[in-house]
Amino acid sequence: MQKSILILGACGQIGTELTLALREKYGNDQVVASDIREGSKNLMDSGPFELLDATNYDAMEDVIMYYEIEEVYLMAAMLSATAEKFPMRAWNLNMNSLFNVLNLAKEGKINKVFWPSSIAVFGPNTPLENTPQSTIMEPSTVYGISKQSGERWCSYYFRKYGVDVRSVRYPGLISWKTLPGGGTTDYAVEIYHKAVSGASYTSFLKADTKLPMMFMDDAIRATVDIMEIESDKLTVRSSYNLAAMSFTPAEITASIQAYIPEFKVDFKPDFRQDIADSWPNSIDDSQATVDWGWQPQFDLERTTEEMLRNLGK
Ligand SMILES: NC(=O)c1ccc[n+]([C@@H]2O[C@H](COP(=O)([O-])OP(=O)(O)OC[C@H]3O[C@@H](n4cnc5c(N)ncnc54)[C@H](O)[C@@H]3O)[C@@H](O)[C@H]2O)c1
User: Of 11, 104, 144, 247, which alpha carbon lies 20 to 30 A from 28's?
Assistant: First the structure.
């Protein structure tokens, strides 16, 4: 199976693992990684890399033409916590990069697009438990507003111009290869790093704040699967709900203490608590299961086992 792929924002938490997974699947030279900065040695050594700003339409077009790119994965964005500090920069990056990719697809220069949304599209008025695919969406963060708008534009470009754009609403992602990039669920990665280094951890969310989460391997599999499925199987062209597990800072602490009993955590909520309070506790992802066979494989216990083993304990 030969196809040429471009990943924008390839050096981030998801982009790094996605690039490596797609290179393994389609061949190293078929997958061009790009970002505004260089990535890990693993990523840089395994295939082509271009310094590329996803807000620059002409530069993106040049790279697409040069490598005869067919599919683009847009992973560049400003995440929830950072976006609250730089609202206009977040809006410009998150929206302009998406318009660039959608317009290149509309003009027939690429034929398939992956763009991730987030549970941040939901807001304080959304049903908190088992949040449905279609429901009240009144996001209260800059990041959530940009993701919700992005979803509407994806759906519009599909309906109006036939652009084959595919999307999932990732929950908080937990991984050990690359550090997270300024989100509200970053605590669930930092906590493992502290635990294996023998330090204690101060959580920026309260002990009982429950959020939907997912181990990176599940997220990568979902991304590859939704891009592989026949187009006519997809009934959602905004973005699919996606879930694996939900837990609180107290619960992740307990799961680590099962391996490291002396590990200590205290709780000092900061501005990210308000963001977390506006997001669902758990997500109904049954539409993704029906349409393209989505099934998660990692629960909290298995995630903790993987994280501690790979981070060196
Ligand atoms: N990580 C999560 O938990 C999570 C959850 C939900 C949705 N998402 C979404 O998934 C996508 C990827 O997230 P991530 O966690 O890998 O983010 P990240 O912050 O780790 O990585 C983003 C990458 O984009 C790059 N970038 C920034 N500005 C750029 C520009 N102008 N041009 C090109 N690259 C640029 C950064 O250098 C970085 O390497 C984002 O759309 C994010 O909103 C992530």
Answer: 104
Residues flanking ligand 1, CB < 6 Å: 8-9, 11-15, 35-37, 53-55, 75-77, 79, 93, 116, 118, 170, 172-173, 180-183, 185
Q: Which atom of ligand 1 is nearest to the CA of 178?
A: 20
Catalytic residues, which ones? 143
* H or E element in which residue 80 lies: helix 80-85
Contact predicate 256/188, CB 8 Å = no
Percent of the chain with pLDDT over 90: 98
Helix (H, G, I), strand (E, B) or coil at 132: coil
pLDDT band with cut points at 50, 70 and 90 for residue 2:
confident
HSE, side-chain direction, 13 A CA sphere, residue 293: 9
Residue in 38, 75, 166, 226 to alter for ligand 1 test, most ligand atoms within 8 A of Cβ: 75
| Assessment of whether the complete model's pTM goes beyond 0.90 | yes
234: Cβ–Cβ under 8 A, 6 or more apart, which residues? 166, 226, 291, 292
